Amino acid sequence: MVAQAWLIMGEGAIAGAAVATLGGMVLGRMRASASRVPVLARRSPSKEVSQPCLEQVMACLPAAMLVINETRGLCVVSKMAEQQFDGDLGSIVRHPAFQAKLDVVLAQKAGNIQPGRVRVILDIPRLRVVQAVLQKQSLPAALLPISMRRENTAPNAQTTLVFVDLHDETDAVVAERQHTDFVAFASHELRTPLAALLGFIETLQGPAADDPVAQKEFLEIMAQQAKRMQNLLNSLLYLSRVQMQEHQKPRDVVRLVDLLDQCQTEGDLLSSGLPVTVDVQPPENQNWQVAGDETQLLQVVVNLVENAIKYSLVSEKTKAGKPVSITISCQQAEADQRWPSAPGIVLSVTDNGPGIPARHLARLTERFYRVAKTAAAVQGSGLGLAIVQHIVSRHGGRFVVESAVGQGTSCHIWLPLLPLVADHSSNCHQTVLQT
Q1: What stretch of H or E contains 403?
Q2: Phi, psi at residue 327, to the nearest 5°?
Q3: DSSP secondary structure code for residue 333 in this structure
Q4: Three-class secondary structure of residue 323 per DSSP
Q5: Of 65, 295, 279, nearest to 166 (Cα)?
Q6: Residue 273: left (phi > 0), alpha (psi -120 to 50), or beta?
Q7: What three-state secondary structure class fits 424?
Q8: What structural domains does the chain harbor?
Q9: What is the pTM of this model?
Q10: Which residues contact 380 (CB under 8 A, 6 or more apart)?
Q11: 409: which strand partners?
Q12: Which residues belong to the signal peptide in this entry (predicted)?
């Protein structure tokens, strides 16, 4: 994982160097064009001059770049910037850190112009880390679109522009954060049971060597700690196996009615002896089928039910005597921007537990990520939802978590539905699994 983070950051550095070289070529082309602008202004009508060379160059530029004028107006946006940062460009330009660096760059004297670098971090609606490099240049105003020029500006007048190169560093930051989370998690989750095991072993070898009561008690605790480490290692191995298979689309046909029957069996086992009820509702259509790995799909539901039980049992509602209710349902997907337009079903696991604060929802599927408030009260690896996300991705599906504090949590899984073709000879339906 460390190597992956360094690879990502290395690619970013290479990309930055390439963009810097490309930016120099662009400025060279614009300066060459600028030297001809006064002649064009004399020889050509104003309509021809209104076709700005700057826009033409930026349209061909394979880099995420912006041009800002001296009044802080956004003049030109490259196609790459529109594709990579669509919807976030306004937030980036208005960000206080960006504006502060823009002030510094605009204040530079003609003989001492240096590029400025700033990191912009956006938290809403999702985490995004952007590295911006700002370079001030003085070029003929005729290179700008007419709408961006000052009134009564002569074609050969000079104007101050700031060229901005944007590089998305979100992947590198997320990889680094995951590495940091892994180190912190491993040092805590593995060191604690190991320390307990070593301590009890030393005690059994010394003071408790001839104490049968203490031996029995200590051995039970040691077994629990060993099982805790075993579960962690099993989760890591399972996640690794799922990731290796993620590019291999499943070829088996899974009947949803059979899958939900197994979910009821697993739910009854998980809730046995606990103030928890697991209600599995039958699918609306008994013939619904999906292309999938039945074992993995069952694991997805089991992980979600286990999470619902663990976190609901420590909530204030449960402590006050309110039972935990978990519902597993399957409906046909309706038109929704969250789902693809293809026919599909939505498998949902809903509980009446404590809910999850909105700021945590976007990170729930990250490895080892756990909500700090409940992590101390509930033992877990923080890998369950990461496994769910990888399995759902392998099945060509979508995974969405909806939650509100005090109102419970709903986990929705969209899966593509296999088409059914009527077989009149046997008066039944057959599934067509496309190759």
Answers
A1: strand 398-403
A2: -120, 130
A3: P
A4: coil
A5: 65
A6: left
A7: coil
A8: 54-148+156-173 (3.30.450.20), 249-420 (3.30.565.10)
A9: 0.53
A10: 310, 370
A11: 351, 403
A12: none
- Token look-up 């700033």 returns 118
Element (H, E) at 197: helix 191-205
pLDDT digits (tens, 9 = 90+) for 302-346: 999 998 998 888 777 766 678 889 999 999 988 888 898 889 999
- The Cα–Cα gap between 401 and 169 comes to 26
Contacts with 42 (C-beta within 8 Å, 6 or more apart), sequence order:
none
Q: Which residue has the tokens 């986990």?
A: 411
Angle between helices 256-271 and 294-313 (to 10 degrees): 30
* Per-residue pLDDT tens digits for 136-192: 988 877 777 666 666 666 767 888 889 999 999 988 887 787 677 667 766 766 777
| Tokens standing for residue 160 | 């101050």
| Contacts of residue 282, Cβ cutoff 8 Å, sequence gap at least 6 | 257, 260, 330
The SS3 of residue 220 is helix
Residue 299: partners with Cβ closer than 8 Å, 6 or more residues away? 238, 387, 391
d(CA 235, CA 229): 10
Q: List strand residue ranges (DSSP E) for 34-109, in order.
A: 65-69, 74-77
Token pair listed for 380: 């877990």
- Rounded distance, CA 401 to CA 306, Å? 15
